Amino acid sequence: MRRRDIENILHQAGARPRHRLGQHFMIDPRVLRAILDAADLHGDDVVLEVGPGPGNLTALLSEKAGTVLAVDIDSALLAAAAQHWNHLKNVQWLRADVLAGKHEINPAVTQALLTLLERTERNGRRHRRGKLVANLPYNVASPLVAELLLLHWRNRHDSAPGGLLFERLVFTVQREVALRMRATAGTAAYGALGIIIQLLGDVEILRMIAPESFWPPPQVHSALVLIRPNEAKMAALSDAVGMQRILAGLFAHRRQNLVNAIRHGFPSVQIIPLLPRLQASGIDPRERAENLAPEQLLLLCEMLPAGDSRWG
């Protein structure tokens, strides 16, 4: 789809790209092909696409996947895209904010996905796993990816029948956010977001994307990211939600050593009895949280009360 075609769909909606919604539409066919290749789509896949915009990626997804759930908060643009692509019978268009809050996926979205997955199962297809494949709006990318992985963890941990699981997450995102998701200990980009993602899945940056690949071009470079939920890692994490809160508390004081960060973030913790436990786990109390590997932070978080974090 060319820029002119996208402009025509926007014209039908009486709209222009909205910076507030992080709307930058993918127009580079090479990147679109890279997204499809990374998604590894099959005829029984149920795909969640967030921020379909004019629907050019949606149309390509519909050719490979069983069903596509295209979710957009922009009602006028969603209606115009749905009208333009009304011949795509395996696409369901849903007007919704994908996030119900900072730490919650919109229940309407999860219910729509579960309904589509149940329909796939009734038709004799495979297990209940969906895929996120999207050119994500910049303003929802970080919380959405984290919450989808946490949702997968909850459903896996609770062993609840009918729970929503994800086979992979493939998405474009701002370059700096991608680097945070893949960052290693001791680097400036290392923080709570990347740690929780790396403790729940395997992260790979597939390629960098120039601003010219989008219209309108953003002022930053982007990246194509692939995340595979890792079942072994998830099994080792007894409380992913609690760990998310603890990491927020620790990294609110990332420049302080662990003793001071714990004092500030967890007022009920008695430091003196904690010290031998830290040392027995190979964790130096004088170290900063930003210099600990995800596996070390996992051990640390098991010693701290998630409910007592001031950043919960």
Radius of gyration from the alpha-carbon trace, in angstroms: 21 Å
- The share of residues in extended strands comes to 15-25%
Name the helicity range: 40-55%
Number of helices: 13
What is the CA–CA distance across the termini? 44 Å
Tally the structural domains: 2
Structure in words:
- The chain has a 7-stranded mixed β-sheet with strand order 4-3-2-7-8-11-9, sandwiched between helices. Strands 1-10 form a two-stranded antiparallel sheet. Strands 5-6 form a two-stranded antiparallel sheet.
- The model has no long low-confidence stretch (mean pLDDT 90).
- α8 crosses α13.
- 44% of the residues lie in helices and 19% in strands.
- It has helices at 3-13, 29-39, 56-64, 75-84, 107-122, 141-158, 175-182, 192-200, 231-236, 240-251, 258-265, 271-280, 294-301, and strands spanning 25-26, 46-50, 67-72, 91-95, 99-101, 104-105, 129-135, 165-174, 201-209, 214-215, 222-229.
- It has 312 residues and is α/β, with parallel strands linked by helices.
- The protein is built from 13 helices and 11 strands.
Describe the protein's topology.
Blueprint lengths: L2 H11 L11 E2 L2 H11 L6 E5 L5 H9 L2 E6 L2 H10 L6 E5 L3 E3 L2 E2 L1 H16 L6 E7 L5 H18 L6 E10 H8 L9 H9 E9 L4 E2 L6 E8 L1 H6 L3 H12 L6 H8 L5 H10 L13 H8 L11
Parallel strand pairs: 2-3, 2-7, 3-4, 7-8
Antiparallel strand pairs: 1-10, 5-6, 8-11, 9-11
Helix pairs in contact: 1-4, 6-8, 7-8, 8-10, 8-13, 10-11
List descriptors.
Rossmann fold; 312 residues; globular; Helicase, Ruva Protein, domain 3; 13 helices; 2 domains; alpha/beta; two-stranded antiparallel ribbon; 7-stranded mixed beta sheet
